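Q: For a teaching session next week I want to show students how multiple molecules come together into a single three-dimensional assembly. I've collected the sequence lines for a complex. Could you give me the predicted structure tokens for the whole thing so I can convert them for display?
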Amino acid sequence: MTGFLIAALGLGVSLGIYLAMAAAPAESFQSPELARIVFFHLPCALISSLFLVLGAAFAAARLVKGGAAWDRRSHACIEIAFVFGLLALATGIIFSKVQWGAYWSWDPRQTSFLLVMLIVGAYFALRSAFADEARRGAVSAAYALASLLPILFLVFVYPRIVTTLHPDVVREGGFDNEYRVVFLVNLAAILGVAAWLYNLRVRCASLESNLEETLARLADRDRPAAVGVVRPVSLSSED
Amino acid sequence: MSSGWGSEIAALLAKEVRAELRGRSGLLTALLFNVAAIVAASFASSAQGMPAFGIAAMLWVILLFAAVVALPRAFLVEEEQGTGDLLRLWARPHSVFWGKALYNLGLMLLTGALLSALYLLLSGQTVERPALYVACLLGGCAALAGSTTLCGAFVAQASNRFALAGAVALPLLVPLLAVTVTGTASAFGAGSAESAERAAAGLWAYAVATFAMGPYLFAAVWKS
Amino acid sequence: MLAVEGLGKRFGPVSVFRGLEFSVGLGDGLLVLGPNGSGKSTLLRILGGLLAPTEGSVRWEGDPRTSLGYSALDLAVYPHLTVQEHFLLAGRLRGCDPRADDLTEGFGLAGHKEHFASKLSSGLRSRLKLALSVQSRPSLLLLDEPGVGLDEAGLSLLDRVCAEQRERGALVVATNDPKERRLGSHELRLGE
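A: Of course. Below is the structure for the complete assembly, covering every listed component.
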């Protein structure tokens, strides 16, 4: 990523933080200053969901087209989704305490997001159990696709069919115009950070793979790997 | 001579049943564990005067663990005893999946029917909407069977596969619990008939989706 | 029958073999030789479609279920199925004639048809695996250490199977046993 883009991202993040911490009025919240964390909580949750879906899309590409590159992209997306999911949970827990008086109230949206993180955690556990790269990639991709249905249900369906403390600000427009601007700026900034991290992660994974291959070739120079030559069998006279 | 899909799947299903009946130790152990769990749950629920929702929750937690412990074995045992390669050499991936999945489906339906009947008997819980109860029970068991079969296939060639099977399957199945418990509780009379109908429809839809995409996901990992 | 191009297999940073290129046609018997750890079994598993290569490709003709036969030392059989049931199951899955009677007679298993595979000696299990590998009369037969555990009669049987196979198609044998060099016409040495 060029220096200009990094600088622009830095400015965007700074602006988002300023708007959230200083510019947006927060009098309607129970504990106004701490409640401002909601401007980071919601973008983290949305970005986590987005990257989970992207990860599943790359997983489908891995299964259809094969190749380690698609696996690296899928894995990177799911890692980013996990990180931002944990941030969403953490900020949500703080907001829950300051707004509703309890860190954890088994609110359906809170609970469903926790379950999503458990599913993603299982993805990493599954991945770590395979040493062979091809098998690891195939199984991870298959699991990412198999888990898409429960994840979509947990994120988009379940919180809308039960009573929840979470307002559906995206669909029902619970945000005032001022809040909406702050939210959108932070969403753009955090999305930029997530995209940057994804790019770094994919490049890192690609370099790791190249390194492994180079080490293998260097080892082959000292101990040549079996490169066979087919020769006719020379039978002895007793045959 | 060529055999169709049906013949291949039937052959695999027959092999599963035969091997399990002859081996027996897996089935008996699972049965003993499940019955003991039902007795413990019934005792707890009757002693506390547990409401219908709690009884439904206990039943489905036991069925969930019954599925997670027993069903992935269909694939895990193949790799443990080293016969996975035989299947890879002889059979098409879709046949293998369907043979194992149908075996697990039969086993889970039987387990669900037995355990739920025993639990209702011991807990004294009445069922106000029997048809919806059966629909939720069968749909939930089918969904559990499909998901755990797939999870078993995923972890079969992994290290520490038996422990990993539970770790991978449980998070996927817990969301299913919410629907099964709601539907079953409504069938007991603790909710509306519409709620039970929606739950049953959702469970069957999940089961169908899992069995529909299962063979394709399985084929991708079987010979990777 | 079999074409291999640029085949390589790596486990993490450890390269087992790379750059293998060869083809096997009608009447060929390829011996895969090499010291322990040189990748003979890994190569055969890749040729049999049981393991994916890291690079390169393997091409064989026809449906691998019937055109490919495979037998290896570490290939297990079902402990709770009888000898007869193995042939019937394999026949139904492959879509070929089970030939249970022919094969049990021909491989000296006639007296063990109703015995569970878990009750067979290791030599008889090797015969069972060999018989299963040729059930569909494959055009390509892959054998990994086929002589291990076989008695004299079993070794004669192995010779006959390999000779018949080379008349029908092609054969690839991975072995450490110098005496088994008689089974092939060409050799591929790994690890040298």
